Task: structure prediction
Amino acid sequence: MVNSNLGIRLTERIRAINQLSTRFVAKVDSCMARCLPGCCPLCRAPLQTRDALVCRHGPICERCYVSLPFNRQACERCAEPLVMYASQGCASWADEIAGSASRLCGRCLTRPPAFMATRAPLLYRGEVRTLMQRFKFDGDRRSGQMLLSVFLQAESIHEAMGHGNEATSHLPEALVAVPLHCGRARQRGFNQAHWLATRLADRLGIPLMVAQRKRDDLSQRKLTRAGRQRNLRGAFEVSGSLPRHIALVDDVMTTGATLDSLARACRRAGAKRIEAWVMARTPR
Result:
């Protein structure tokens, strides 16, 4: 019994030290990014200040930015790619569909999700997949900063900021990050959705509100769409009331089952217009 308690305390101490070291490394990386242009995280070419396509940090050279797999032609509700083609130029996904007729995929026409629209400027493939895996599983904050910067650069949010009440009124009144169960959060030591949502809330001046995950579900990675929906039924809870217009934040949308389940919980808490904000969308 004594040995068991000692082992638990030692494990908790090691986790605390790892978290402190991770935060220290993140601060050092942030200071270095401010002082030195560094190199592009994709092609490793030296960066000039003029090449840094950034909102705060996370520089990427113009050549790599242009070659990223942008999700240009997509369903307006779930961001499912409707036309697959190689991206040319750096025009944003939002600019591509602005002023065009409403585009919905067949699934959203027949069984629409609980959220109304999705912002997903990138496709989860190639270099974006590599960056996302570094960010999600290795806790690589620089990859996260780059993805966040591309999201803000590519989306119409970037133009809406600071242009008066008419423009900013299109932004949501609050952000809600997709939560991890407390057990899985302790095991991983990093919640990528909360990390992204915190920085988006700070950048856009929008409050961040909290949702809870009531149980630790099976991993979604090998489940079918129907299996994901069953696995997440009733998985989320929101305490208190939410404003009318909110956005849910996650790293990647695969089938949309997680965001759909969270959106239903947010509707029960009073939200009426719910958007999904993700860095990338997985093609079918």
About this structure: The chain is about 45% helix and 10% strand. The radius of gyration is 19 Å. The chain has two domains: 1-35, 49-281. The mean pLDDT is 76.
